[in-house]
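Why does this matter for the project? Reviewers at the last site visit asked to see concrete outputs rather than summary tables. In response, this paragraph embeds two records directly. Each consists of the residue sequence and, immediately after it, the corresponding structure tokens. Nothing has been edited or filtered.
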Amino acid sequence: MTIAIPAPVQAVFTTFPLQTFPAVPARDTALEAELGRRTFAFGKHASSNDAAPFTLVAAHRPVSVALDGATVQLCSAPAELFVQLCLCHKNALALPREAQEGCAAIPSPHKVLVAARAGAPELLLNGRLVARDELLRGLAARLPGVHRQLSQLLDRDLAPLFAGGYVSPGVVRRATQTLRQFEQLAQGGDSSPYLEMKVASYVLVLLHVVAEGEAADLRECREFVQGECPALVEGAYTVLRRLSGK
């Protein structure tokens, strides 16, 4: 059965015939650019083996730190930076130098991705998201004996500085006392790679993330590290040089 096309409809299609348009590429360039700005690729040491692809999810944008004529990108929260340093050490990778934006067209299989997630740091590995607590427990297990207890002491006395909100004078006092203890330990030379990276994560954040506009308690701890803890500062930069890929 044939159905007649109403004259007004036929007039419309006669005046404005159907056209076929080319396919629209399935790419969101704005999203790609934003991801590029939020992605920081690890490098490789000359002797590094192929490590399994991973993405470290960080809540805070990395901070640029000058090191021996180059610039490295460091996560700007102590727990995130500790994981970043450990990933470099474990997988023979170098610290990121710049955002993925404007880098090589082939994306790196090893990267830091900045995302507003309360549970950061997290690690995307082999299609599985390793949560913060599991990730940090696994790294703590690599610390031998007394060094694990020292790592826990650092977290107990320094982590409250970065929790946000009011910090009491007692918290600042415990933090500086603990930093002084670790300064003495650093002068004695008894350490291990993972403990060195743990200490460096706190020292480097205090030195490079805490700005003049920060709360007085953080500025006090930063000034204490700068003035009273030369061995801790030198040890932190030694860790960076070891992991910078130079």
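We now turn to the second protein, recorded in exactly the same manner.
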Amino acid sequence: MFLFQKKVDPFVSTIHLPHSFKSDINKIVFFTENPDQARIAMENGAAVAGGAELVEKILADEITADFYLAEPDMVQKLLPLKNKLRKKFPKSKRGSVGMNIPKMLALFKSGHEYMVEDIYVNTQVATLDMPNEYILANIHAIVKDVASHKPAEFGSFIERAIVCSRSSEGLHIKIEELLPQEEEKA
């Protein structure tokens, strides 16, 4: 997708695609000092749950994960990990800091992460063996989520979209049909 001449601050988002194409489940580390919350995290699929004692293990590369989630009161204790984890560092803006542990883990265990940099979204949306309806539904979900990050001062946000596989040329798609409709002002 191409965000025409209107640069946005880079962001990362994780969403549930209507038709997942990944069979593996993401490995998640959940940070909490509360043993009950750690138990809930483990029951809901976290690979590792613990407190500040995990910081040294992560810095020593003894523990690695696809996503790192945390309770709000743990973020300050995780600051030594900021340079190590970089974009994986837990942030409330990204949805990786919160108190609703089952909901957070459900999203990050099987969610699809995409990144917007400058004027492009470059992400996988499907596999070539998927039915066209599934591919279109996944594209629609990503377009809808990207549009939800639109700054208030922007008019039209997504100008065009191009889909391609690694071995083929890009195909333009009619993005207007996929965009959320803005209500007209009277």
